[in-house]
Amino acid sequence: MRSNQSQLSPPLTVQQLYKSTAVSSNARQLIQSGTIRPIPPKEAALAMNSEGFILLDIRPEWEREKARVSGSLHVPLFVKDIDNSPITLLKKWVHFGYIGLWTGQNFTTTNSEFLQQVEMALPDKDAKVLVACGEGLRSMMAASKLHEGGYRNLGWLAGGFNRAGDSDFPAVEGPEKLQYATIGGASYYFLQLLILLQAVGKDG
């Protein structure tokens, strides 16, 4: 059975939080300066078809399974945390109690081989790469890492797939709509109920 869970990075230590904040701040500066180009979902297809941008999906596999743009590359920035040490297990239980039950979000950890895996998939660092995730935050971090790794023609999908309309990416695979792929847990079923009620209301 395919899981409806999307997953999130675990609570950060002070050092990790500082580093994450620094990366996010650096990414915003790169975007604001135009070094990394923000591309809205409505303009993404044109950027890919006319300008040669390659779409790099950095979402975890369980989100990508629900919906993905045909032909996009996939290298996850976060991967499932398989550490079962007592401290990590305790954090997982706390995380599930506060967040996981409603959102379906579970523990992940940063993919330590992210840059190397992108380099294997895209060795040409002059290639035009459009980095995308669900909401735009993880892809902002990923774009910053790629810039630090030597990629210089980077685009960032502003707002992520969540902001995409049904026609923004004409070729989409998977059982869900692209903009709903990050939703999991009880909130996923709540969303399905809202969609059903909207459909019933239109029919009525």
From TrEMBL:
Coiled-coil ranges per UniProt: none
All residue ranges annotated as the Rhodanese domain in the record: 49-173
Name of one Pfam family that matches: Rhodanese
SMART domains xrefs: RHOD
GO-annotated cellular components: chloroplast
Highest taxon of source: Eukaryota
InterPro entries for this protein: Rhodanese-like_dom, Rhodanese-like_dom_sf, STR10
Protein name: Rhodanese domain-containing protein
Taxonomic lineage from the root: Eukaryota, Viridiplantae, Streptophyta, Embryophyta, Tracheophyta
